[in-house]
Automatic annotation (TrEMBL):
Coiled coil regions in record: none
Any one GO molecular function term: beta-N-acetylhexosaminidase activity
Species of the source: Herbidospora galbida
Name of this protein: beta-N-acetylhexosaminidase
Classification lineage: Bacteria, Bacillati, Actinomycetota, Actinomycetes, Streptosporangiales
TM region(s), chain numbering: none
Cellular component, GO annotation: membrane
Length: 496
């Protein structure tokens, strides 16, 4: 039996099955990733040309569409009042991020309720315009999940602001909307905090393998936030406590129980460090750090970590996590924590991030029983630091190897029994950087899994199949070459 995509005369795209040895399956889906909720092919489109004009009620979105098309095709478009590519805020029913896109012989029209919706629609149009001949189409689209994230670990290996911006560009092209910055870990502290000067002079000066490290000043961090905001990506900063804190302890030994600074750490073990429970300095530290992050971050969420603590009793662990979550609430923000934090008392509206099967479902269920919603980050699917196969030149394998179909072919709603879409806030991939030294390394691990997971988070489950995705993914390699993005040439994709 073969699965074929057929277009009915109604204009609806429907999945039908055919048996036997008829004509081979036609790839009738347009090469869009993530695939929209609804796509109807129309007879005639138009050919985009240099000098074409984008007209929009949201000039910033128009300017970015012009820049995006230029990056993809080399065409030079302009913005102005009478273009044949029009973006209008005239679809109040489209929701926060939804949009309608129509392409006909006279040009293209994107309708949305918000600037964000126009921006998402503009990414779809960019992909349609890749070959200049834009096909006739009517798209009606909105995301499955509100939270479509990527975590970047800038603690194990630091990434300068310019690299983070490039990562944001790559995320935004696939309609991701949350950049989770893992700012602190045993090997480095990456954000300046007033009153705790050694966090940057000492804590930031290390990274895995002994490199120079680095950190973001408040101005650097604000620049990342601004750049991301312009692309409708919100930044969620993580300060990982009470474990993963060797860099902070080495910088400020008053945070240890015996007052002695541990050696700086540049290896890749986890679980060995912890803040000192019960010490007033611990509470002062958490308050100061989270107050600063709250002041720097316009988004609603602060991530307090909470993972992999081996050095504290459950009671000590809960005591410190609860100091952190109370500091988040006191500064007007909402909590995100790794699954382990589900064992503590969580404030209202918290988010719990599932990452591994070992104990994870129980911790997540404890959090959900307290009203939390879930971010799905199963390590065996979405940990971008896992190798694709044994030959991948960097990466880890503790959660297995993760080829493109492993990253793509799962349903968040069937991962944990009893946790369906009504309790799931979204999906987030994680790029831990123990083995990731350069931006090329980042790209190699992220592509093509980042677009695959973006589709898991955006596209209705009923519209997804790996075979159709593989066909749509292959031609994107041409664009990645233009962007000079390194990617894994997975043997499961028929690349051009
Ligand atoms: C687990 S996932 C970690 C990280 C490591 C990662 C490496 C999680 C919450 N903790 O500390 O970097 O594995 O794959």
């Amino acid at each position: 039996m073969r699965v074929v995509w057929r277009r009915l005369s109604l204009g609806l795209v429907m999945l039908v099955t055919s048996c036997g040895s008829g004509t081979p399956a036609q790839p009738e889906q347009l090469a869009l990733v993530p695939y929209p909720a609804s796509v109807t092919r129309l007879e005639q489109g138009f050919t985009i040309e240099s000098g074409d004009t984008v007209t929009s009620a949201e000039p910033a979105v128009a300017a970015q569409l012009v820049a995006g098309i230029s990056a993809d095709t080399g065409l030079e478009l302009t913005t102005g009042p009478t273009g044949r590519i029009r973006l209008d805020l005239d679809a109040p029913q489209a929701g926060a991020e939804g949009y309608e896109l129509t392409v006909g012989p006279g040009g293209a029209h994107i309708s949305a309720a918000t600037a964000e919706g126009l921006f998402r629609g503009a990414q779809t149009f960019r992909q349609l315009a890749r070959e200049r001949a834009v096909p006739g189409v009517r798209v009606s689209d909105r995301p499955r999940y509100a939270w479509r994230g990527a975590m970047l670990d800038v603690a194990r290996h630091f990434r300068p602001v310019a690299d983070v911006k490039r990562f944001v560009d790559l995320m935004a092209a696939y309609k991701l909307n949350v950049l989770h910055l893992h700012l602190t870990d045993d090997q480095g502290w990456r954000i300046a905090v007033p009153g705790w000067p050694n966090l940057t002079t000492v804590g930031a000066s290390t990274e895995v393998g002994g490199g120079p490290g680095g950190f973001y000043t408040a101005a650097d961090y604000r620049e990342i936030v601004r750049y991301a905001q312009e692309r409708f990506v919100r930044v969620v900063p993580e300060v990982d406590v009470p474990g993963h804190t060797n860099a902070a302890l080495a910088a400020h030994p008053e945070l240890t129980c015996d007052g002695v600074a541990p050696e700086p750490y540049t290896g890749i073990k986890v679980g060995f460090s912890a803040l000192c429970p019960g010490k007033p300095e611990t509470a002062r530290f958490l308050n100061d750090v989270l107050k600063e992050l709250a002041a720097l971050t316009p988004g609603h969420h602060l991530h307090i970590g909470g993972d992999e603590v081996e050095k504290l009793s459950p009671r000590e662990y809960a005591q410190i996590v609860e100091l952190a979550t109370q500091a988040v609430t006191a500064n007007g923000k909402e909590v995100v924590g790794w699954q382990e934090a589900g064992a503590t008392v969580l404030p209202p509206n918290s988010l719990i991030q599932y990452w591994q099967t070992n104990g994870g479902p129980e911790d997540v269920k404890r959090a959900v029983a307290q009203g939390a919603k879930v971010i799905m980050s199963p390590a065996s699917r979405v940990y971008l630091d896992m190798k694709y196969d044994d030959s991948t030149r960097i990466g880890q394998t503790w959660a297995g190897t993760t080829e493109i179909d492993d990253a793509y072919d799962w349903d968040p709603a069937t991962l944990i029994e009893g946790i369906g879409d009504d309790r799931i806030e979204g999906v987030e991939m994680a790029l831990w950087t123990e083995t990731v030294v350069t931006m090329n390394d980042v790209e190699l691990l992220a592509f093509p899994r980042l677009p695959a997971i973006a589709e898991v988070a955006w596209t209705p489950q009923s519209q997804r199949s790996f075979d159709a995705f593989a066909t749509r993914l292959a031609p994107l390699a041409t664009v990645w070459d233009r962007w000079e993005v390194d990617y894994h040439r997975s043997p499961r994709i028929a690349w051009p």
